Amino acid sequence: MKTIAAVLLGALLAAGPAYGLDGNEILKKVDANLQPESFESYRKLINVEPNGEKREFLLFTLKKGKDKLISLFLAPASDKGRGTLRLGDNMWLYIPNVGKPIRITSLQSVIGGVFNNADILRLDYNVEYDVKGMKEEGKEYVLDLKAKTDAVAYDRLKMRVDKGALLPTRVECYAASGLLIKTLYFKELKKFEDGMVRPAIVETDSPLYKGYKSYMVYAQMKKREVPDEYFTLNFLPNVGTIR
What we know:
This protein is mainly beta. It has helices at residues 4-15, 17-20, 23-34, 117-120, 125-128; strands at 39-48, 54-64, 68-75, 83-87, 90-94, 102-104, 129-137, 140-147, 156-162, 167-174, 180-191, 197-205, 213-223. It has a 13-stranded antiparallel beta sheet with strand order 6-5-4-3-2-1-13-12-11-10-9-8-7. The longest helix has 12 residues, at 4-15.
């Protein structure tokens, strides 16, 4: 007859990592810990060239639900007033005095540097990826993610997740060929509004851009409910009115 301790041990082993959470459930918790479902944020994007020269951008961003995101450039002066809109896999750039918004792709970059539009206008990971494999290495889960469609910027991701915080520490981004495109490093946990604790800095480098680095620094993030009408091409020229 099995002892109570043996029964409990067997149940824990059968439950698997995170007491019954499978890889996709862990990924959803990672997303929830990184950003609320609907929020506003202020962040600085910094490009650093091999010679040390820097270029900085300040963005105001609104996100709603799983597939709506709009941003406004506040600085530098040469980019002030530009806006970007993402609806699912579709992205647009609005430039004042140019006319109608311009279609852009996920692999392009509205700021140059190592971050592309998919990084800057990122949706939740679980919206675009399924977990195809998971293992434990020390204090981390290692998730292998596969893109749900060909429209996603990266075919596969290898995500390292801190077991305690359920937040990413590093994400390697791969093309369908297996080529490593870039690596994202999540650093410096910070407490934001509504009690949210998440990395304040996302750093990236790429073997395709040797010597270049880019940083995303979050100064503010908080929950905010906004109407669907904000996330339209007609409203994009007016995004500056909702800060």
